[in-house]
Amino acid sequence: xxxxxxxxxxxxxxxxxxxxxxxxxxxxxxxxxxxxxxxxxxxxxxxxxxxxxxxxxxxxxxxxxxxxxxxxxxxxxxxxxxx
Length: 83
Description:
Blueprint: H1 8-33, H2 42-63, H3 69-82
Helix pairs in contact: 1-2, 2-3
């Protein structure tokens, strides 16, 4: 991540990976809502971005030793269940 600040190639790879994760998350949210889910519904994109931001933050906390992995997983699963 830090390298992407000064390296355009790294920045591009990371950005593409994040967009891919976001698109997949949106697809899964819409699939979970069923056949009636509107493909243009902005709520799925908003929800996907919130979930991914939460996952990013929890990952950071686990990596620095501020949170146990099991706690992070439980928190993320609880948020998905609320969605």
